[in-house]
Amino acid sequence: MSRGVLQAVGLVRRYGGLTAVDHVDLVAPPGMITGLIGPNGAGKSTLFSLLTGVEQPDEGKVMLGTTDISKMRPDIRSRRGLVQTFQVPSLFPTLTVADNLLVGAENRRRDYAGGLLGLSAPGRGRTSRLAEGVLEKLGLAPKGPVTQVVEEVLESLGLSDVRDTIAGTLPTGALRLVEFARALCARPDILLLDEPASGLDAEETAKLSELLRRTAAEGVGILIVDHDVDLVFSVVDQVYAMVGGRVVASGDPQEVRGDPTVRSVYLAQAPLAAAASQPGEA
């Protein structure tokens, strides 16, 4: 399956006299995990908003493959394959886990042979009337192959036991895994993950790392921003470091970790300082 590269080209976003994103260039290729790090106020969240269409740039453009998507609404970008998870889980709290995934799967219709993770679990789920109502409001109608995708993702993420659980009753860690599952059900070309490890314990974080690698191996491009820099540096193929709205270093994770500007900016920040001073590191 051919997937497009996500590119930020000279993106600028100003709020009065403050330039939150200052001529940022970024490339997130398919089949690779790209990390985005930076201290609070670096412009990471604003850049994410520009990429997803929540905000519009004052200068520059966002490209998905050969298409300029800068003026497209977030829902249109999502249906074109640019799918996001949020810092605060945005599930339907009164729907079951399976029905939340079904809404995600129905948000983007196209062939997706074998499911995102290459599994072949038979479709056995049914949509609740409440989920059907949500889908009707979205102008969508559930189809057999879509429920199969949902069941495959539930199984692959170990969520089958909670498939019929009301999402709003789950703890934060489980909610994040469910939101990640819903994003997978949307069959993304590019997956934007905003603080996906927040609220996860060590075991759940390890599972997330494995899922990220497996997802990228299927050809999906992933852009991740997370304060868990150990997670970021352990899974990414390339990383961008932002400070004051600008990219100050980019490329190989080890090279970025050792960059003098990055090290000086993060010197007083314990998490990155610890990551940058592991045994054997310069």
Question: Can you characterise this structure?
Answer:
With 282 residues, this protein is α/β, with parallel strands linked by helices. The chain has 2 domains: 1-81 and 188-282, Rossmann fold (3-Layer(aba) Sandwich), CATH 3.40.50; 91-187, Rossmann fold, CATH 3.40.50. Helix content is 37%, strand content 21%. The protein has helices at residues 44-52, 74-79, 97-106, 129-137, 144-156, 172-185, 202-217, 229-235, 253-257, 260-266, 270-276, and strands spanning 6-15, 18-28, 33-37, 59-64, 67-68, 82-85, 190-194, 221-225, 238-243, 246-251. The strands form 2 sheets. The chain has a 6-stranded mixed sheet, sandwiched between helices. The chain has a 4-stranded antiparallel sheet with strand order 2-1-4-5, with helices on one face. The longest helix has 16 residues, at 202-217. The N and C termini lie far apart (41 Å). It comes from Frankia canadensis.
